[in-house]
Structures are given as structure tokens and as C-alpha cells.
């Protein structure tokens, strides 16, 4: 459609130029031939993008004897100027000026030859400059579009990476919470096994097991629902629901032996360090239930200058039954604490010949 409009506009301009020529050149038995040649020249513009230089030279030659082609040849020159070959554009411009000179010699007009040369040279140079600048502008637009597309792709890639990182965080949180509840259930079940079927507290313990299992399922439903709808925004529990002392009390109710030395004032503050202290203690208690069931667990949380120190220790008996664990909890915990500028260490100290010793997990989190 655009090319057809260019052809029609060039033909209309050529006809207008022909009428101007007829005013200065009486007679005109050649008018029909001029119009026919001019029409063919304008149709040739449809090929200007495939062979711009060839079409430009052909139309320059046509304009030397055809007034109706006097606009089409400059349209072709514009196409040559857009090829980024400025030397070819000047060559075709020279051919256009030569064609105008030839037309003046074939059909002398009232104007001076020098004026004809100057005017056509100015027009040709203006068309070359216009075409070159237009192409430069198009190139810049293409560069900016490519840059915008690249930035958008990078933004999408960063968003995907953040989404993957958030999914990994959610998976770690789910692991910590579910492992915590599952280890409590195992501890309660162990208590039932020891107490026997006729114990008075069997009903209460069974209720506690059911409640704990329900909490674990609720955690799973929340995370699965978040992953399904794609929001990746897990509802955060309030500080009152996530307290270190609450973890300790919960463990004691399940029958775990826990001695806690807690800096309640430091833990009450709304601080990222208190959140990680909660996770450190949660992981420490969970590991003790998995690998040292029935042993005494010692939990210490205190301020040390700009840091919050968390230490969880428990004896290790190589002959004691253990629950399966993949080690993902400690790894994810270390990643979170490291991201805050802290450290997490865990080791087995005082190990004897029989493999017994004490497992210690120690975390240092910047208290901001």
C-alpha cells in the first residue's frame, strides 16, 4: 500500500511538472509519449528497494527526456541514499543533474542553464542528505528497539531467577516447618509406645499428635496453594506465633528434655536476627529429635555486641535410633544466615572411641 501511494504521488508530481514545462515550451506533440514514459518510470519505483542504484540510474536517464519522470528520479535517489553507500548516492545525484541538463538542452526553456544546474544540484543534494539522515534515524530506532527488547529479556530473566530463588526459599521453609512437626509427632508416638495402651494420657497424646499433624498439613496446603497460584507470597506468621520460647515449650510438651537460656529482651525485638534465631533453634531441636531422641538439649540465645548468638547442643549416642534426614535443613539455614552477613557452624565435639560425643550447632547473626 505504501509503495502504491509513492508511485501515485510521483506520477501526480510528474504530471504537475509536465504542465509547468508545457507553459514554457509551446507545441507538445510529445505529451502522450512523455506521460507514458513517466508512468513506466513511476511503476519502476516498485523495484527501488531491490535494486536502488540500477533504478536510480535508469530513472535519471528517463528524466533526461521525460518531464513526467522528473519526480520519480528523485524518489529513486532517496532510496539510493538510504543504502548507506554515500558514494553511490552522489553518483546517482550527479546522473540526475546531468539528466536535468540534458532535458534543458533537448527542450530549451526561458530560464538560464546555470540556474537549472544550480536548482537541480541543490535538490539532488537535499534528497541525498534527507535519505541518509532518514536511514540514520531508522538505524537508531532499530538500535533502541533492540536495546529495549534486550532490557526486557534481562528483566524477565531476573524475574525468573528471583522466582526460582523464592521457590527455593519456600521449599526450605516448608522443609523446616514440616520436619519440625514430623519430629514432634515421632516423639509423641514414641511416648505412646513407652506408656502402653492402657495409660491414662493416651487420649490426650493422640489428640496432640492429631493437632500437630494438622499443623503440618496446613503448612503444606499453604505452600502448595501459593505455588499453584504463582504469587509466591507465603503469609508470614506474627512474632507472637513464632517465638523461640514457644518452640522450647512445644518441645517440652512433647517430652523432649530441653534446658533453655534465652535473652528474652533481645528476642522480643522486631529484627531479622530474631527470625533466624527462631529457625536456628527450630533446626537444632528437630535434629536432636531425629538423631538423639531422649537426650538433653541445651539452647542458648544471647546478645554479643552487634550480634545475636544461638547455640544448640545435645549428646550423640551412635547406638541410639535415628530418624531419616537429608541434611537440607542445615544447608538452607546456612544460606539464609550467610545472606544476612552471619555464620552457621556445626560439629561433633568430645567424640570418643565409641563414636559418642556432643553435637553443637552455633550461629552468629548480625543484630540490626
UniProtKB/TrEMBL annotation:
<dbReference type="GO" id="GO:0000155">
    <property type="term" value="F:phosphorelay sensor kinase activity"/>
</dbReference>
<dbReference type="GO" id="GO:0016020">
    <property type="term" value="C:membrane"/>
</dbReference>
<keyword id="KW-0808">Transferase</keyword>
<dbReference type="InterPro" id="IPR050482">
    <property type="entry name" value="Sensor_HK_TwoCompSys"/>
</dbReference>
<feature type="transmembrane region" description="Helical">
    <location>
        <begin position="53"/>
        <end position="76"/>
    </location>
</feature>
<keyword id="KW-0547">Nucleotide-binding</keyword>
<protein>
    <recommendedName>
        <fullName>histidine kinase</fullName>
        <ecNumber>2.7.13.3</ecNumber>
    </recommendedName>
</protein>
<keyword id="KW-0418">Kinase</keyword>
<feature type="transmembrane region" description="Helical">
    <location>
        <begin position="113"/>
        <end position="133"/>
    </location>
</feature>
<dbReference type="InterPro" id="IPR036890">
    <property type="entry name" value="HATPase_C_sf"/>
</dbReference>
<dbReference type="InterPro" id="IPR011712">
    <property type="entry name" value="Sig_transdc_His_kin_sub3_dim/P"/>
</dbReference>
<feature type="transmembrane region" description="Helical">
    <location>
        <begin position="88"/>
        <end position="107"/>
    </location>
</feature>
<keyword id="KW-0902">Two-component regulatory system</keyword>
<keyword id="KW-0067">ATP-binding</keyword>
<dbReference type="GO" id="GO:0046983">
    <property type="term" value="F:protein dimerization activity"/>
</dbReference>
<feature type="domain" description="Signal transduction histidine kinase subgroup 3 dimerisation and phosphoacceptor">
    <location>
        <begin position="166"/>
        <end position="231"/>
    </location>
</feature>
<feature type="transmembrane region" description="Helical">
    <location>
        <begin position="6"/>
        <end position="22"/>
    </location>
</feature>
<dbReference type="GO" id="GO:0005524">
    <property type="term" value="F:ATP binding"/>
</dbReference>
<dbReference type="Pfam" id="PF07730">
    <property type="entry name" value="HisKA_3"/>
</dbReference>
<keyword id="KW-1133">Transmembrane helix</keyword>
<keyword id="KW-0812">Transmembrane</keyword>
<keyword id="KW-0472">Membrane</keyword>
<keyword id="KW-0597">Phosphoprotein</keyword>
Amino acid at each position: 500500500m505504501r509503495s502504491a501511494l509513492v508511485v501515485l504521488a510521483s506520477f501526480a508530481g510528474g504530471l504537475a511538472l509536465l504542465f509547468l514545462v508545457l507553459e514554457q515550451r509551446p507545441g507538445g506533440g510529445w505529451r502522450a509519449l512523455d506521460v507514458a514514459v513517466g508512468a513506466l518510470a513511476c511503476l519502476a519505483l516498485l523495484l527501488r528497494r531491490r535494486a536502488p542504484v540500477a533504478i536510480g540510474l535508469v530513472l535519471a536517464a528517463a528524466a533526461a527526456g521525460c518531464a513526467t519522470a522528473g519526480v520519480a528520479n528523485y524518489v529513486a535517489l532517496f532510496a539510493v541514499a538510504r543504502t548507506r553507500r554515500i558514494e553511490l548516492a552522489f553518483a546517482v545525484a550527479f546522473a540526475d543533474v546531468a539528466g536535468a541538463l540534458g532535458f534543458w538542452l533537448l527542450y530549451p526553456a526561458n530560464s538560464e542553464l546555470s540556474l537549472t544546474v544550480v536548482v537541480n544540484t541543490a535538490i539532488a543534494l537535499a534528497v541525498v542528505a534527507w535519505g541518509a539522515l532518514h536511514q540514520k534515524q531508522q538505524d537508531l530506532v532499530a538500535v533502541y528497539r533492540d536495546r529495549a527488547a534486550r532490557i526486557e529479556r534481562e528483566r524477565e530473566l531476573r524475574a525468573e531467577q528471583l522466582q526460582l530463588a523464592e521457590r527455593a526459599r519456600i521449599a526450605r521453609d516448608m522443609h523446616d516447618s514440616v520436619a519440625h512437626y514430623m519430629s514432634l509427632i515421632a516423639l509423641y508416638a514414641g511416648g505412646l509406645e513407652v506408656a502402653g495402651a492402657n495409660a491414662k494420657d493416651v487420649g490426650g497424646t493422640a489428640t496432640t499428635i492429631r493437632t500437630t499433624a494438622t499443623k503440618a498439613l496446613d503448612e503444606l496446603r499453604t505452600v502448595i496453594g501459593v505455588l499453584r497460584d504463582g504469587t509466591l507470597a507465603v503469609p508470614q506468621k506474627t512474632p507472637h506465633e513464632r517465638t523461640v520460647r514457644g518452640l522450647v515449650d512445644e518441645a517440652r510438651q512433647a517430652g523432649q528434655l530441653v534446658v533453655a537460656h534465652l535473652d528474652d529482651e533481645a528476642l522480643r525485638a522486631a529484627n531479622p536476627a530474631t527470625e533466624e534465631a527462631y529457625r536456628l533453634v527450630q533446626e537444632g531441636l528437630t535434629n536432636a529429635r531425629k538423631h538423639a531422641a531422649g537426650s538433653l538439649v541445651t539452647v542458648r540465645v544471647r546478645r554479643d555486641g552487634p550480634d545475636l548468638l544461638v547455640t544448640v547442643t545435645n549428646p550423640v549416642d551412635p547406638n541410639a535410633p535415628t530418624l531419616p534426614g537429608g541434611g537440607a535443613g542445615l544447608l538452607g539455614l546456612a544460606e539464609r544466615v550467610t545472606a544476612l552477613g552471619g555464620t552457621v557452624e556445626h560439629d561433633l565435639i568430645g567424640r570418643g572411641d565409641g563414636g559418642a560425643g556432643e553435637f553443637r550447632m552455633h550461629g552468629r547473626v548480625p543484630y540490626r
